[in-house]
Description:
There is one protein chain. The protein is of the alpha+beta class. It folds into 2 domains: 9-75 and 154-173, no CATH class; 82-133, DNA Binding (I), subunit A, CATH 1.10.30. Helix content is 16%, strand content 23%. The chain has helices at residues 30-38, 82-88, 127-133, 154-159; strands at 14-18, 24-29, 42-53, 58-67, 104-107, 122-125. It has a 4-stranded mixed β-sheet with strand order 2-1-4-3. A two-stranded antiparallel sheet has the order 5-6. Strand 1 and strand 2 form a beta hairpin. The protein is elongated. The two termini are 36 Å apart.
Amino acid sequence: MFQTTRNGSLLNKAVLVLNTNYSPLMICTARRAICLKYLEKVDILVTYKDKVHSPSITVVLPSIIKLKDFVHYHSMNVVLSRKNIMIRDRHTCQYCGAKSSSMTIDHIIPKERGGSDYWDNLVAACQQCNKKKDNLTPDEAKMPLQRLPRKPNRIHYFQQFINRDQTAWRPYLFLESF
Protein backbone atom coordinates (compact mmCIF):
# COMPACT_ATOMS: atom_id res chain seq x y z
CA MET A 1 0.00 0.00 0.00
CA PHE A 2 1.15 3.51 -0.74
CA GLN A 3 2.27 5.71 2.11
CA THR A 4 0.38 9.02 2.23
CA THR A 5 -0.60 11.68 4.70
CA ARG A 6 -2.38 10.64 7.88
CA ASN A 7 -5.87 10.83 6.42
CA GLY A 8 -4.99 9.50 2.96
CA SER A 9 -5.98 12.78 1.35
CA LEU A 10 -3.36 12.55 -1.41
CA LEU A 11 -4.95 9.43 -2.86
CA ASN A 12 -8.35 11.10 -2.65
CA LYS A 13 -7.32 14.09 -4.79
CA ALA A 14 -9.61 14.72 -7.75
CA VAL A 15 -8.50 13.56 -11.19
CA LEU A 16 -10.21 14.66 -14.41
CA VAL A 17 -10.97 11.73 -16.71
CA LEU A 18 -11.15 12.48 -20.44
CA ASN A 19 -12.56 10.28 -23.16
CA THR A 20 -10.31 9.43 -26.12
CA ASN A 21 -11.62 12.53 -27.92
CA TYR A 22 -10.52 14.69 -24.93
CA SER A 23 -14.07 15.43 -23.81
CA PRO A 24 -14.53 15.44 -20.00
CA LEU A 25 -16.13 12.22 -18.85
CA MET A 26 -15.93 12.11 -15.06
CA ILE A 27 -13.87 12.85 -11.99
CA CYS A 28 -12.24 10.05 -10.03
CA THR A 29 -9.78 9.80 -7.17
CA ALA A 30 -6.02 9.65 -7.64
CA ARG A 31 -6.15 6.12 -6.20
CA ARG A 32 -8.49 5.02 -9.01
CA ALA A 33 -6.43 6.83 -11.65
CA ILE A 34 -3.23 5.06 -10.52
CA CYS A 35 -5.03 1.70 -10.72
CA LEU A 36 -6.29 2.50 -14.23
CA LYS A 37 -2.77 3.47 -15.29
CA TYR A 38 -1.29 0.21 -14.04
CA LEU A 39 -4.07 -1.70 -15.81
CA GLU A 40 -2.99 0.20 -18.97
CA LYS A 41 -6.47 1.64 -19.50
CA VAL A 42 -5.44 5.31 -19.42
CA ASP A 43 -2.65 7.68 -20.36
CA ILE A 44 -1.60 10.31 -17.84
CA LEU A 45 -1.65 13.75 -19.48
CA VAL A 46 -0.95 16.02 -16.48
CA THR A 47 0.33 15.30 -12.98
CA TYR A 48 0.26 17.09 -9.66
CA LYS A 49 3.52 17.91 -7.88
CA ASP A 50 2.58 15.46 -5.12
CA LYS A 51 4.01 11.96 -4.95
CA VAL A 52 3.01 8.84 -3.08
CA HIS A 53 5.43 6.13 -2.04
CA SER A 54 5.28 2.40 -1.55
CA PRO A 55 8.23 0.35 -0.30
CA SER A 56 9.39 -0.24 -3.88
CA ILE A 57 8.15 2.65 -6.07
CA THR A 58 7.28 6.33 -6.07
CA VAL A 59 4.34 7.55 -8.15
CA VAL A 60 3.57 11.13 -9.14
CA LEU A 61 -0.17 11.74 -8.68
CA PRO A 62 -2.11 12.13 -11.91
CA SER A 63 -4.27 15.23 -12.39
CA ILE A 64 -5.69 14.56 -15.87
CA ILE A 65 -5.98 11.13 -17.49
CA LYS A 66 -7.29 10.09 -20.90
CA LEU A 67 -8.95 6.75 -21.61
CA LYS A 68 -7.31 4.53 -24.23
CA ASP A 69 -10.65 3.13 -25.41
CA PHE A 70 -13.60 5.35 -26.33
CA VAL A 71 -16.63 5.22 -24.03
CA HIS A 72 -20.00 6.02 -25.62
CA TYR A 73 -21.60 8.32 -23.11
CA HIS A 74 -23.76 11.17 -24.34
CA SER A 75 -25.55 12.29 -21.21
CA MET A 76 -24.69 15.71 -19.81
CA ASN A 77 -26.94 15.09 -16.81
CA VAL A 78 -25.81 15.20 -13.22
CA VAL A 79 -27.57 12.70 -10.97
CA LEU A 80 -30.00 14.32 -8.55
CA SER A 81 -28.71 13.47 -5.08
CA ARG A 82 -28.25 15.13 -1.72
CA LYS A 83 -24.48 15.25 -2.27
CA ASN A 84 -24.84 16.90 -5.69
CA ILE A 85 -27.30 19.50 -4.37
CA MET A 86 -24.79 20.37 -1.64
CA ILE A 87 -22.02 20.69 -4.23
CA ARG A 88 -24.21 22.85 -6.47
CA ASP A 89 -25.13 25.12 -3.54
CA ARG A 90 -21.57 25.04 -2.13
CA HIS A 91 -22.76 23.80 1.28
CA THR A 92 -24.37 27.22 1.78
CA CYS A 93 -27.87 27.88 3.06
CA GLN A 94 -29.80 29.39 0.18
CA TYR A 95 -31.91 31.45 2.59
CA CYS A 96 -29.44 33.01 5.05
CA GLY A 97 -26.05 32.31 3.43
CA ALA A 98 -24.63 30.33 6.37
CA LYS A 99 -22.08 27.62 5.59
CA SER A 100 -22.22 24.42 7.58
CA SER A 101 -21.49 20.73 7.33
CA SER A 102 -24.92 19.93 8.80
CA MET A 103 -27.11 21.30 5.99
CA THR A 104 -30.51 19.93 5.15
CA ILE A 105 -32.35 19.77 1.85
CA ASP A 106 -35.42 22.00 1.57
CA HIS A 107 -38.26 21.77 -0.94
CA ILE A 108 -38.98 25.30 -2.15
CA ILE A 109 -42.57 24.27 -2.81
CA PRO A 110 -43.28 21.80 0.01
CA LYS A 111 -44.11 18.21 -0.92
CA GLU A 112 -47.46 18.49 0.85
CA ARG A 113 -48.35 21.29 -1.59
CA GLY A 114 -47.35 19.47 -4.76
CA GLY A 115 -43.61 20.18 -4.76
CA SER A 116 -41.48 17.37 -6.05
CA ASP A 117 -37.88 16.22 -6.12
CA TYR A 118 -36.46 18.24 -9.02
CA TRP A 119 -33.29 20.29 -9.27
CA ASP A 120 -35.25 23.56 -9.40
CA ASN A 121 -37.30 22.73 -6.30
CA LEU A 122 -34.52 21.60 -3.96
CA VAL A 123 -31.96 23.77 -2.15
CA ALA A 124 -29.47 23.46 0.67
CA ALA A 125 -30.77 25.03 3.88
CA CYS A 126 -29.44 25.28 7.41
CA GLN A 127 -31.53 23.57 10.04
CA GLN A 128 -32.74 26.87 11.53
CA CYS A 129 -33.99 28.21 8.18
CA ASN A 130 -35.58 24.89 7.26
CA LYS A 131 -37.52 24.88 10.57
CA LYS A 132 -38.45 28.55 10.21
CA LYS A 133 -39.71 28.10 6.63
CA ASP A 134 -41.70 25.03 7.69
CA ASN A 135 -44.42 24.11 5.14
CA LEU A 136 -44.48 27.53 3.49
CA THR A 137 -43.13 28.85 0.22
CA PRO A 138 -40.22 31.32 0.44
CA ASP A 139 -42.62 34.22 -0.29
CA GLU A 140 -45.07 33.17 2.42
CA ALA A 141 -42.24 32.75 4.94
CA LYS A 142 -40.67 36.06 3.81
CA MET A 143 -37.42 34.18 3.17
CA PRO A 144 -36.20 34.98 -0.34
CA LEU A 145 -33.69 32.64 -1.96
CA GLN A 146 -30.18 34.01 -2.38
CA ARG A 147 -29.98 32.34 -5.77
CA LEU A 148 -32.51 30.43 -7.84
CA PRO A 149 -31.67 26.75 -8.13
CA ARG A 150 -30.80 25.35 -11.55
CA LYS A 151 -30.11 21.93 -12.88
CA PRO A 152 -26.36 21.76 -13.48
CA ASN A 153 -24.84 20.03 -16.47
CA ARG A 154 -21.69 17.95 -16.16
CA ILE A 155 -19.37 20.72 -17.36
CA HIS A 156 -20.65 23.10 -14.66
CA TYR A 157 -20.37 20.28 -12.15
CA PHE A 158 -16.73 19.60 -13.11
CA GLN A 159 -15.87 23.31 -13.02
CA GLN A 160 -16.67 23.40 -9.30
CA PHE A 161 -13.74 21.07 -8.60
CA ILE A 162 -11.16 23.47 -10.02
CA ASN A 163 -8.87 25.04 -7.46
CA ARG A 164 -5.27 26.23 -7.58
CA ASP A 165 -4.03 22.65 -8.10
CA GLN A 166 -6.29 22.05 -11.10
CA THR A 167 -5.48 24.99 -13.38
CA ALA A 168 -4.48 22.49 -16.09
CA TRP A 169 -8.12 21.35 -16.19
CA ARG A 170 -9.39 24.73 -17.39
CA PRO A 171 -9.00 24.21 -21.19
CA TYR A 172 -10.72 20.80 -21.02
CA LEU A 173 -13.69 22.35 -19.20
CA PHE A 174 -14.10 25.23 -21.66
CA LEU A 175 -12.82 27.86 -19.26
CA GLU A 176 -9.93 29.01 -21.47
CA SER A 177 -8.29 28.09 -24.76
CA PHE A 178 -5.40 25.65 -25.05
